[in-house]
Design goal:
about 140 residues; mainly alpha; 8 helices
Length: about 140
Amino acid sequence: MWLTNPENLEEEDLQQLLTLRAQFPPLAQLADQREALRQIFDDSTLTTPEAGAAQLSQWNVAARALGLTAINKFCDTLERWQEKIANYFLSRASNGPTEGFNNGLRTLLRRAYGMTNFRRFRLRVLDRFGHPQPQEST
């Protein structure tokens, strides 16, 4: 429940989450920071890397104020990659689909350890990911 977006929770789960938030205030604060970060990336008014970077910097200050070691490590990474991350606000593009494909391919590679027939491996990849669409020539 902590990791599910609030709008995707059933009413019963929301009530249970409210109870958990009262029992574990530090986790509730962390969940609030997660939600604030998500709202930054969902904010369609942020259309430049500079505006996005400014919001990310403000979020970083608030997150560090929690004093949690785990979030401080995340904040360090965010600061280190902020310029590249802020470029997201230009086109709202993500490499998520590519990362998903790479992860799936790595899983297939682990399962295929010792497989010596490339044709069979290729068939497994095509079965998992589908047949590639032919590229249109320009």
